[in-house]
Amino acid sequence: APAGAAMRTEIATAAAFVTRLLRAAGGVGEEQLRCFRECLQEALREHYKHHWFPLVPSKGSGYRCIRINHKMDPLIGKAAGMIGLSHERLFQLLPSELTLWVDPFEVSYRIGEDGSICVLYESPQPGGKAIKPLESRTSCKEEWRIGRSSPSKNYNMMTVSS
């Protein structure tokens, strides 16, 4: 399959995720959101064309990484420009720190610099070897629990009592 076809799911997943963040923030019309998603997909396809290595999924990962860190990612900025959203407006709508990794067989993201990594899409790699040991990743629910100040230990002890 040509690289374009191979990347389709990963790119669609990434573009849909950023679009969902914009929709959740409110104030952007559905038609604009649809256009934004299509423009972003197109921009990602172009950007990743010669940087997609299914046999070595981590190769080029930094190049494919979409990042907002008090600077707007140029690809998101470009797609937003197509629907008339300024960078200032984008910063109001999107997290100020977002990292999105779009790699063959896996799309994951992190909000904030020290948040956990949450997986949006994962498919087994041909050849069947796992990409990363899953134990090294906390699920998003875990992150949410850890982020809460209430101690969950007491709660666990109560549920254990017969």
From TrEMBL:
InterPro entries per record: Anti_prolifrtn, BTG, BTG-like_sf
Segments traversing the membrane: none
GO biological process, one term: negative regulation of cell population proliferation
Cellular component, GO, one term: nucleus
Domain Anti-proliferative protein residues, every copy: 94-113
Homology family: Belongs to the BTG family.
Classification via PANTHER family: ANTI-PROLIFERATIVE PROTEIN DOMAIN-CONTAINING PROTEIN, B-CELL TRANSLOCATION GENE
Protein name: BTG1 protein
Species the sequence originates in: Brachypteracias leptosomus
Origin organism lineage: Eukaryota, Metazoa, Chordata, Craniata, Vertebrata
